[in-house]
Amino acid sequence: MKFLARRLLHGLALLTAVSFFSFLLAQMAPGDFYSELRNDPRVSPETIAGLRAQAGMERPLLARYGAWVRSSLRGDLGYSLAYQSPVAPLVWERMRSTLLLTGTATFLAWLIAVPLGIWSAAHRGTWRDGFSRMVLAILLTAPDLLLALAMLILAAQTGWFPVGGEASRGTPPLYDLAWHMALPVAVLVLGLAPALARHVRASLLEVMDSPFALSARAQGIPRRRLLYRHLLPAALNPLISLFGFSVGTLLSASLLVEVVMGWPGLGPLFLEAIMARDFAVVLAVVMLSAVFLLVGNLLADLLLYRFDPRIRTVDQ
Amino acid sequence: MSRRARIRGALAFLCLLYGAALLAGLIAPYPYAEQHREFPFAPPTRLHFAHLQPFVYAWAPDQAGGYREDASRAYPAGHLSGVFFPLGTDAFGRDIFSRLLYGGRVSLFSGLLAAFLSLALGLLFGVVAGFFGGWPDRLLMRAGELVMALPWLYLLLAVRASLPLHIGTIQAFLLVVAIIGGMGWVRPARLIRGVALSGRERAFVQAARGFGAGPGYLIRRHVLPLTAGVLVTQATILIPQYILAEVTLSFLGLGVGEPVPSWGNMLAEARQYHALVSHPWLLAPGLALIPVLLAFLVLADALLESPEP
What we know:
The structure holds two protein chains of two kinds. Chain A contains 14 helices and two strands; from the N terminus they run αααββααααααααααα. By secondary structure, chain A is mainly alpha-helical. Chain A folds into two domains: 13-74, no CATH class; 93-315, MetI-like (MetI-like fold, Orthogonal Bundle), CATH 1.10.3720. By secondary structure, chain B is mainly alpha-helical. Chain B has twelve helices and three strands, in the order ααβββαααααααααα. Chain B has helices at 3-22, 24-27, 96-132, 134-148, 152-161, 169-183, 186-201, 203-210, 215-251, 263-269, 273-278, 284-304, and strands at 48-50, 53-61, 67-76. The relative contact order of chain B is 0.14. The mean pLDDT of chain B is 83. Chains A and B meet through α1, α5, α6, α11 and α12 of A and α5, α9, α11 and α12 of B.
């Protein structure tokens, strides 16, 4: 419990620091949301100055930071100048779409990667292992960007899948949603699963080479029982950290895929906000992704604490 | 294959690619911005053989808006004046093969330079933190946590967002290298800090200290050589990651911009899917990434393996 409280406090401090440095960075940034307007001859400099004053841009850094913190505590996460509304509702909706996509993809990727990694490790040195490693290496190096573009070609040429978007016109029944999700999820799974499978294989191999595994084999414990009862639990440690990491990147893993395939998630929102210099939205997305990463790490540590007795003895 | 053979093979292959990109001015059939207005979206030119001599036909527009081969005149394959496009052309009739070579200059070398920058910063910070400990150590580790608090791509985009968006090519290239390299020092710094921390306690370092060696000498003669292994393996991991980062930034329009090609902004052209569907050769820069990244992966795997007895 004390461990948890300390970690939460630490996380909170880190988030404060991240938000403050983001403000500093934005302060140093050339131009702001109204910079584009300045090129418009119909808008007088006085109007722009008025707009800027109204948006509170002329106030000192600390005052603006204070206003942002108060707004965040109210649950608004600041005010978007481009959308003329509080940021929170904008972001929640996009976040739901992103989580739907990445949650499904991460789940499927683990579902595929764990058995594949175990199988590959159990057949170490055979042609089957070699073959699966080769395929995984090639998939691992195929960039998400390429996969996404290739899937778009597939969708457009066969007409089996929609090219982009989350739903067709009208109310989306479950089938429609699944149909739209299929390709982005496929790209993400192809991107995530090979890396995971390689990690599973590597951590299992490390345990298989340890002295206790050799002694267990010498004592005649059957292969299968040895693998699932003794080796796998011992190999869990790095995988739990990896799981925490993949929870932590739920919001950020799909940015590129969303942008390419037109999925209305956080990625396109973030990119548009950067281009428009809509700082409140940028900051909100940055903060949310930081929160996710922290929670993912914390989750991994708690799981490790629960499943790995070695850690507990070190801690005390 | 033995470990040594794989390392040699991957290194030779990478040297070949980097060399080709560096010598793009000599190898590329056309300048990167040369437009062949009469051949927009021309498919890769087909090679024909007569008595083992390769030759090509020029493309001629057909009624359907595509191209057919104009068999009335054969050109020898070495003859490159405006009809031979090994990988096809883009919307402006620019030769994709040439642009791929010139784009490799930007993409491959930005990865290399950014990794160099990251490792240099990581080495500096890591050695200082590990060797001296105390407040520099705490400060650097805190700063590292701050950088690691954001997902990598979001961090890059957020930092990029706070810098000027519309700038010249050279500035954009240097900016991309600086951002990618400058934000990536944390992981190498942590690893090197560990090496320096344990190196400080090694018996031979303690002995040298006992003979009166100062910190400068100890770091130079004893700690730095210990970090070489970490630096090399980190380089093989970071360079491909940074090449991808440059491609991503340029793809999103936040990196190096037209008309100078980078593999990222070339792929951005393929983003309009109706252009892509009928002209799949626009994906060439994406496909070119695969052998590059694969070579780095083989290299990293082989280096991490313990050497054979």
